[in-house]
Every structure is written in structure tokens, then in C-alpha cells.
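Worked Example 4.2. Consider the chain below.
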Amino acid sequence: MNVHPCRWLLLSAAAALVGCDSQVYTAVASSDGSVVILNRYTGDVRKIQGRSIVELRRAVDPVSQLKPFSNGYVPNQPITVSGAAKYRTGTMILRVSIGPNRVPKDDAAWFIWRLHLDSLRKAANLRIQFVDADGFRIAEHTVALSDLAQTVDPNGNVFNYSDQFEIPMSEEDFRAVNNWLVGWSGYWEPYVEPDKKPQS
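Applying the procedure from the previous section yields the following C-alpha cells:
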């Protein structure tokens, strides 16, 4: 690609003006005589014209975005644990929800599921570890099932349990959190599938 010498001067000046590192920034000369600078890491785009720098696009800071986690399960229990987190000054705000691991097939099955969850709420806990991309633990938090609020459908029937919690955490640690590991503690009453319960 042939670039007019004046363009090279403009590109060099633009790079110096924003402190460009060639591994981070890409500078492209525009037809109107300006230079567009792209930060390849953050997604920020700036336009440099003369001595002015105009911000064309600011990337969304990852720390302000919702961070969803993969679903967790407890062996031999009819639940799925789902969650997500956001960050607010010095605090991870964690949302935890528990629902059935498969939709009960009828009202009777829903009733048995709710009855079982009510029994678990007496002494069962979730032990949640937050880990980085390499699986190293950054923080942990214990959620007592008794702390989760019931969510009901229009008919007044419970279909999941959820709540949110505040966990002290630095911004650096929150950025490093890649996922969670869901464990358990306390007493978890064994669950028997409705169609496998012994006939009385």
C-alpha cells in the first residue's frame, strides 16, 4: 500500500500523541486527512484531526457487565443451581437461583419437588468457590438454602428459590473470576423420584 509522505507524518504524530504501542493500537489514515486509532484490547476508537482527539466509541468496561456462571448441580438432588454476578465498588453482587433440574411432569410432581426443597432448606448449604481461568480459587461464599426467597407463579405456586448476596472483592479479583464451582455442606435429605417411591 502506497501512503503519501504527509500521511506518514500524520500517522507518526498521531501515534506519538496517544502514546501508541504497536502491539496495542492500530492507526489508519482516513480520506478526510484524519487518523483513526483503534485500541485492540479495549475496543476504544478515537479520531485524531489536527491537534484534536475525538472519542468515536468507548468500549464497555468488562467489570460493569453481567458475568454469568455455568449451571451447578448437587449429586442425587433434583436441582439446578444458576447464578450471575456484577461488580459495584469493592463488592461482587451475586445472584443465586435454584430450580428443578428438569421440569416436573405434572402438579403432583411439582408438589413433591417443593416438599423436598422445603426439607432441604432446614439444614442444606451451597459452598461456592469463584475460580480464575486456570481453576485457582479467588474467593468463596456459603449460601444457606434457608436464605433463598421463594419465587411463585401467577397461581401462587413456588417454581424456584433465589436471592442475591454481597461479597467483598477487589476489582482486580472480580476481573479474574472466570467461573464458579458449586459444592455442598450440611444435611441433604436423599431424594426419591416420585415414580420410584414405594407404594403404601
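Residues 107-120 form the longest helix (14 residues). The longest strand covers residues 158-168. Compare this with Example 4.1 before moving on.
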